[in-house]
């Protein structure tokens, strides 16, 4: 049986997946071809994101104050960024620890001269999860 709602959701889902993949492809194409090091690929970026994300998760799990600050900031809208900033200004060692964790991603972004926004990555993961 044909249900228009299902067809619309499938079409929308396909458009989201296509858009996310195109966004990732555009980011990959934007990588300078002159700097064609093996690290300047979508796979390397994804791998760096995965490593940084996993280590950040482990760090936050072992630092409940930082975990709470970041978790609670998610529901604060525009004020969330200020809440996170205020927490880490008061806890500079935790900020330094997280900066060290993020170093591989920062180095890759500088080396490849590409900047993929977190929203781009979130759209990709949303598309893959649908």
From TrEMBL:
One of its GO terms (molecular function) is heme binding. Residues 38-113 form the Haemophore haem-binding domain. Gene3D superfamilies: Haemophore, haem-binding domain (1.20.20.20). InterPro entries: MHB, MHB_sf, TAT_signal. This is Haemophore haem-binding domain-containing protein. The lineage of its organism: Bacteria, Bacillati, Actinomycetota, Actinomycetes, Mycobacteriales.
């Amino acid at each position: 049986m044909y249900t228009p709602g299902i067809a619309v959701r499938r079409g929308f889902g396909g458009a989201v997946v296509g858009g996310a993949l195109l966004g990732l492809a555009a980011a990959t194409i934007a990588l300078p071809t002159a700097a064609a090091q093996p690290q300047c690929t979508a796979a390397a970026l994804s791998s760096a994101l995965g490593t940084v994300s996993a280590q950040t998760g482990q760090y936050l799990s072992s630092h409940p104050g930082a975990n709470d600050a970041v978790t609670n900031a998610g529901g604060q809208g525009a004020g969330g960024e200020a809440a996170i900033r205020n927490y880490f200004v008061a806890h500079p060692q935790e900020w330094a620890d997280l900066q060290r964790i993020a170093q591989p991603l920062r180095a890759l972004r500088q080396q490849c001269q590409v900047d993929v926004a977190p929203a781009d990555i979130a759209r990709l993961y949303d598309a893959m999860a649908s």
